[in-house]
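Researcher: Please generate the 3D structure of the following complex. Treat every line as part of one assembly.
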Amino acid sequence: MSEFLIYKLILVGSVFGITLFVAAYSTYAERKVAAFLQDRVGPDRAGPFGIFQPLADGMKFIYKEEIIPVVSNKFLFVLGPCLAMLTAMMAGVLIPWGNTLIIGDQVYSLQIADLNVGILYVFGVVSIGVYGIMIGGWASNNKFSLLGAIRASAQMISYEIAMGLSIIALIIMTGTLSLGEISAQQAGGVGGDWNMWNVVYQPLGFLIFIVCAFAECNRTPFDLPECETELVGGYHTEYSSMKLGFYLFAEYINMFVSSAVISTLYFGGYNFPFMNDLGLDHNTISIIGTVVLFAKISFFIFFFMWIRWTIPRFRYDQLMNLGWKILIPLAVFNIFLTGLVMILLK
Amino acid sequence: MTLNAFYFLSFLAIMSAIMVVLSKNPVYSVLYLIITFFCIAGHYTLMNAQFLAIVHIIVYAGAIMVLFLYVIMLLNLNKESEPHKSNILKFAATICAGLIMLVLIGSLKGTENMLAQQPAAADIGLVKTLGKVMFTEFLLPFEITSVLLLAAMVGAVMLGKPESR
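Model: Done. Output below.
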């Protein structure tokens, strides 16, 4: 029992560390990608190629003066960024970071917890993620912050519906809610055994899901909660120092986690083509699989940034129209189509 | 372990439920209510009903309470704008609440001989089991509930529509 506990603790610790590391380097990557797309150099002062930039940014955030507005609600003002960070970190528990490792006669799964309600847990975490923003925005006692917070919550609730509906079609197909099983079902791929990733069977669902993921992460083109031309800084206008850092950091963690969820649900998770034809032993395949999963995640993080520096922001009514009048009917149509095909194939 | 978790969750749920009523600030009330919902979800998990727990969190904590918070934050309730109710209304409210308490105590009186039951099986709260029961044994109530929801939705759309000129 204690051995099980130690192994789980190591796993939790490493997922925690890797999440923070990836989020920190996403900030660096974001600036480098932006520089690349705009034909600039980007950060290049701290270390070779500016590789220590995230450390420098972190130090700066910590040493900045911390201002808590006098008229704000102090407890909730501090609680806001903490909640944003906490909910962002919570979903990583469910992601299958790799296949099993066999050491001696023990089998170690690289997933912290394989709940049978897996994907719903992710939705639960996403749906309470809005509290960090709302509480922070309200506690600042600033009209711009409040407007930003209200925009954020309305946007997240609206897009959660389409996201949930797009997932239902996938669940009809896979017949399970557990992320571990969904990953395992996509094993093989091209090679000896033909088995496609879910994106091949659910292109429409994937499209809806990724649009909603952008909206849930408050990324451009859906970054209206912090739309600086209208709202100064949005919900974090009054924040300074590391509390602002937490909000910005939570956004990158959300991006990392949603990239991981997209890779797991639609792009085979830790599986890669020809995995059963290489003739390698189980553990080697598992380790390569984990590396492949991180490659997929990196691609989607890059995709998030690519879109951010390519497409301008929506207007708020356009955002609501897209969510309610286009994505939700499309998602319902997708469910209907998937159900019909499943019945016909039986 | 389970018993300790039960006592802890119950204590937290009751305390925050009391705080919902006692808080002066409506935003605090809503936040305490959210804590209460989380405790109830914890109770569902203790009874092996993970699906119910997670749906409870998504629907109540994630959607309904966000809307509550949304409205209360926009109303910006504070001391100055607090509405003053007449004494008759306060009196009526007290009597109503007292009657509800009486009904609740009455319904709880019959349960004192009941033994606390262990859940019948570990998989009783799984999605598969729940789905099977819902679409065979309880199909009619399930469908009627969906009609009820549809009616509520149509009603909300009707009320929300701008008045035609």
